[in-house]
Amino acid sequence: xxxxxxxxxxxxxxxxxxxxxxxxxxxxxxxxxxxxxxxxxxxxxxxxxxxxxxxxxxxxxxxxxxxxxxxxxxxxxxxxxxxxxxxxxxxxxxxxxxxxxxxxxxxxxxxxxxxxxxxxxxxxxxxxxxxxxxxxxxxxxxxxxxxxxxxxxxxxxxxxxxxxxxxxxxxxxxxxxxxxxxxxxxxxxxxxxxxxxxxxxxxxxxxxxxxxxxxxxxxxxxxxxxxxxxxxxxxxxxxxxxxxxxxxxxxxxxxxxxxxxxxxxxxxxxxxxxxxxxxxxxxxxxxxx
Length: 289
What we know:
Distance between the termini: 48 Å
Shape: globular
Helix content: 25-40%
Low-confidence stretches: none
Structural class: alpha/beta
Mean pLDDT: 94
Strand order of the largest sheet: 2-1-3-10-4
């Protein structure tokens, strides 16, 4: 039986459960991220330890949580079909234009904050942490007028009916890997890799490869205000990115197209254009705030 390592949050277990169902003969090994230090990297460390210590065969991660540099001895074995990567608005309004002036919006993401304020500088954006249920409860209690979350997580938790409207990617570029699950395995574990590859999707893997290439070449972290979204249609890969300051006062957007068979190359081209436009300086300024 394949052993799947997962964090013990409701969303992580729902995601791992989907993978277990695809694999068939699989069981879950739950790990905790409590007490882990640092940014989003803390979400993957417990799962990675379970793999490295041989307590599990495949680790399931939200791909957007994986740091650009892979932990030694581990590799992304495959990526299943991606869920919709869109960010969604939950709360008052039927579109961003219709949201009342000065509305209180909650998000833990600097990427979301930067893009919201870039188009609606009047919004009052507050830090909002906690799991999906905690964030929805704070909205229901009237502490906020709206919150922004990933559609993929809401769907996996059966909470899609909470959504007021989806934010278009030209307004809210998703995080690299958003909506995708990364299946991680030990390097050299042929059985685990084969099991993962059997439920993997090549299109999603190529999109993720392109997105991660941009993040790596910009030397961005999970905490920096950057969005990257790749989409393959036929033999073409289109990839767009946003880099900005958390207050929305300054930003760069760009988009390129490339060969779907060379996703890293398309990502590198976009990163080069962003760097030429001053993206590294903008990110350095953002991290210093």
